[in-house]
């Protein structure tokens, strides 16, 4: 059976709520980014990664960006789902992140990452569960 993990960073809990729903949908293990190294993450066949828009339309720079940079070279052929919460922007951070992951050769779920504005509502959480199910399927 292939191994699946959901790994996220969240400052105020919005991306955390998304991560829990993705993990439920996938039947996957859930980690904050501080709980797992990039090397350990690379040992999973399927990954869902969650990070909100931070800075000026970038990934969180203290923990998540260094983690993703370290993982990026090991994503080739891995099934990957990206998700995160945002505030006032238009999702540019996710478009840039998705493009990076595609460039790294990951097999991405969907045509774009799943983004939700601020606190996820019930429909948003259902979308997160569906993303998890898609990641775990096949
Ligand atoms: C320091 C900081 C920078 C942010 N930068 C952006 C941004 O560039 N674009 C955006 O849409 N939202 C931005 N936000 C809003 C967050 O993405 C939004 O509140 C999100 O729901 C936070 O998710 P979290 O609860 O998982 O931390 C920023 C928030 C903070 C605190």
UniProtKB/TrEMBL annotation:
- Cross-referenced Pfam families, in alphabetical order? Flavodoxin_1
InterPro entries per the UniProt record, alphabetical: Flav_short, Flavodoxin/NO_synth, Flavodoxin_CS, Flavoprotein-like_sf
Boundaries of every Flavodoxin-like domain copy = 4-136
GO MF annotations in UniProt: electron transfer activity; FMN binding; oxidoreductase activity, acting on NAD(P)H
Q: Which domain of life is it from?
A: Bacteria
- UniProtKB keywords: Electron transport, Flavoprotein, FMN, Transport
User: What does the record give as cofactor?
Assistant: FMN
Q: Which family does it belong to?
A: Belongs to the flavodoxin family.
**Role of this protein:** Low-potential electron donor to a number of redox enzymes.
What NCBIfam families does the entry give? flav_short (TIGR01753)
Name by which UniProt lists this protein: Flavodoxin
Organism in which the protein naturally occurs: Lawsonibacter hominis
């Amino acid at each position: 059976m292939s191994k699946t993990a959901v790994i996220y960073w969240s400052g105020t809990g919005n991306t955390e709520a998304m991560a829990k729903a993705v993990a439920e949908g996938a039947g996957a293990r859930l980690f904050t980014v501080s709980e797992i190294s990039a090397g350990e993450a690379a040992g999973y066949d399927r990954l869902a990664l969650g990070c909100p828009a931070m800075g000026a339309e970038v990934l969180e720079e203290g923990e998540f960006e260094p983690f993703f940079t370290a993982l990026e070279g090991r994503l080739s052929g891995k099934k990957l789902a990206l998700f995160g919460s945002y505030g006032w922007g238009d999702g540019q951070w996710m478009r840039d992140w998705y493009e990076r992951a595609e460039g790294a050769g990951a097999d991405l779920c969907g045509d774009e990452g799943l983004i939700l504005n601020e606190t996820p509502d019930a429909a948003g959480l259902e979308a997160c569960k569906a993303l998890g199910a898609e990641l775990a399927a096949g």
